[in-house]
UniProtKB/TrEMBL annotation, chain A:
Gene Ontology molecular-function annotations: monoatomic cation transmembrane transporter activity
Pfam family, one: MNHE
Cross-referenced PANTHER family: NA(+)/H(+) ANTIPORTER SUBUNIT E1, NA(+)_H(+) ANTIPORTER SUBUNIT E1
Primary localization class, coarse: membrane
Superkingdom of this protein's organism: Archaea
Membrane topology note: Multi-pass membrane protein
The encoding gene: mbxA
Annotated GO CC locations: plasma membrane
Compartment annotation: Cell membrane
Protein name: Membrane bound oxidoreductase, MbxA subunit (MbxA)
Keyword annotations from UniProtKB, A to Z: Cell membrane, Membrane, Transmembrane, Transmembrane helix
Organism field: Thermococcus gammatolerans (strain DSM 15229 / JCM 11827 / EJ3)
Annotated InterPro entries: Cation_antiport_E (IPR002758)
Transmembrane stretches, start-end: 7-27, 33-52, 64-83
Top-level taxonomy: Archaea, Methanobacteriati, Methanobacteriota, Thermococci, Thermococcales
From TrEMBL, chain B:
GO MF annotation list: sodium:proton antiporter activity
A Pfam family per the record: PhaG_MnhG_YufB
Protein name: Membrane bound oxidoreductase, MbxC subunit (MbxC)
Residue intervals passing through the bilayer: 6-27, 39-60, 66-91
Stored PANTHER family: ANTIPORTER SUBUNIT MNHG2-RELATED (PTHR34703:SF1)
Record-linked InterPro entries: PhaG_MnhG_YufB
Keywords: Membrane, Transmembrane, Transmembrane helix
Species: Thermococcus gammatolerans (strain DSM 15229 / JCM 11827 / EJ3)
Length: 177, 131
């Protein structure tokens, strides 16, 4: 992945910090805004090397649009996950069949992998145990038959990935590249 | 009492219900991995519901202002981004420490992967010695 210039990364950090300041103060009083800009500029000077590697390219309209579309999609998956967990906890027989499965991802960047791992943890029945390059090890609360009966390792990986990582990848591929 | 306050109250109620489920999951699940599953998911959505609910509730009351909602949104986003990471760190530490899976577990690909990796490293080392 190519790295953006220092100025672009710095400006991106300032914008994100200032947005957080706006939300936290929730006022458009000029005094507050000036103070926010000053602090954003100051903190960004220290923090930009560790904050982003791609700078203003993160604000590409297509990426922002996909990110906004991803929010309701993700929240819906999360609510379904919780109903699923509620069913498993409240059911008298406690229907769980846990196991650790192996998935692969097509994402290349580190922020993308982090977002995918977080999304996996918060959605139905899965929690990320370890990430190694493009290998994901996922603790699944109910391993379905089709994954369990896979004969070879490749088949197992393919079926597990299409179940767990694929639904998010189509969004995250665009957002994080 | 208006619509916003009513929505907020309902959200807080739902969030509390998920908190309850999270605690119940801790009691009912058999091993640390399954407990992580239930507690992380339910506690995150429960907190989200309670926080956003409080923001909306305050917006609908006499004393409230927009500042309530924006602050709760920031806190909720922060929690949503950090909670899964802490869960991941905890479950990974548990696995590395050697805490066994529940006897009812069906597959453990991670164990196979670590073993095959260790074997590979060993064989590479062995070749180096032979040369």
């Amino acid at each position: 992945m190519e790295e953006a210039g220092k100025i672009s990364r710095y400006l991106y950090t300032v914008i994100v910090l200032f947005l957080i300041w706006l939300f936290l103060t929730a006022s458009t009083d000029p005094q507050e805004l000036v103070m926010g800009v000053i602090f954003s500029l100051l903190i960004a000077a220290f923090a930009y090397p560790i904050f982003t590697t791609r700078g203003l390219a993160n604000l590409h309209p297509k990426r922002v649009a996909y990110a906004i579309a991803y929010i309701p999609y993700f929240l819906w998956a999360m609510i379904m996950a919780n109903l699923d967990v509620a069913y498993r906890v409240l059911h008298p027989k406690r229907p769980i069949r846990p196991g650790i499965v192996h998935c692969k991802t097509v994402l290349k960047t580190n922020p993308g992998k982090l977002a995918l791992a977080n999304s996996i943890t918060l959605t139905p029945g899965t929690i990320t145990l370890d990430v190694d390059d493009d290998n994901y090890f996922i603790h699944w609360i109910w391993v379905p038959d089709e994954v369990l009966r896979a004969e070879s390792d490749e088949e197992h990986v393919e079926r597990a990935s299409s179940n767990i990582t694929a639904p998010f990848e189509k969004f995250l591929k665009v957002i994080f590249g | 009492m208006n619509v916003l306050a009513a929505i907020g109250e309902i959200l807080v109620f739902i969030g509390t219900f998920f908190y309850f489920l999270s605690a119940l999951g801790l009691i009912r699940m058999p091993d640390v991995y399954n407990r992580m599953q239930t507690s992380t998911k339910s506690a995150t959505l429960g907190s989200l519901g309670v926080m956003i609910g409080v923001g909306l509730w305050a917006l609908g009351s006499d004393f409230g202002s927009v500042a309530w909602l924006t602050k709760t949104v920031v806190i909720a986003t922060f929690l949503l981004l950090t909670n899964p990471i802490s869960a991941h760190a905890l479950i990974r530490a548990a696995y590395k420490r050697g805490i066994p899976l529940w006897h009812g577990s069906v597959v453990d690909k991670y164990h196979e992967y670590i073993e095959s990796k260790a074997e590979k490293a060993e064989s590479v080392e062995g070749e180096g010695d032979a040369e």
